[in-house]
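REVIEWER CHECKLIST
Item 1: Sequence provided? yes
Item 2: Single chain? yes
Item 3: Sequence as submitted:
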Amino acid sequence: MYIPAHFREDRTEVLHQAIRQTGLATLVTLGADGLEASHVPLLLDPESGPQGALRGHIARANPQWRRASANMPALAIFLGPGAYISPSAYATKRATGRVVPTWNYVAVHAYGTIEFFDDAERLRAIVTDLTERHEIGREPPWMVSDAPADYIAGMLRGIVGFRLAITRLEGKRKLSQNRSADDQAGVVRMLGSGGENEQAIAHLMRSAVDPPETSS
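Item 4: Structure as written out by the authors:
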């Protein structure tokens, strides 16, 4: 990923937090037939190795797991909130007119070795952990045990699990850091009256200098 110095994010804890908040990733692998990609929710195990590991599953009918090369790294792409930035937001527009549109966004690329498996207990653990992760806050939360055991067993036979041991993390937080303070303030004001993504970017811009502490 091309990352100008203004936008580079190297802090593992900040990248892990972005992964958790995004949840859905694009899993990219290389095989004999070229590149393949699937869009899957992933779990982060932050203490598994120096940079953590990712767990998830894909459909057994999806040929990606059969064709992925064991000798090539896989890539999980997490694309966080993003927002169009109009030149009208910049103080520089009024001063010189020398501005153009852009897009602010957060992206994390996680590279590493990938292992596919179909062990029923490991699959059940992934499904259970994913469910608990995304049912937090619901009342009552749905649990895997709410469904009949034979039904769940059949569903598990229809998926293949994987674990991606992260060997390299790249992070990009493009939040107008290359603009003047007045331009940044104008962007925050404009985005603050927008939709969910726009407001998320505005919030990140306010905390870009000193992001909040993250927890594991």
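Item 5: Key structural point noted by reviewer: DSSP finds seven helices and eight strands in the chain.
Item 6: Recommendation: ____
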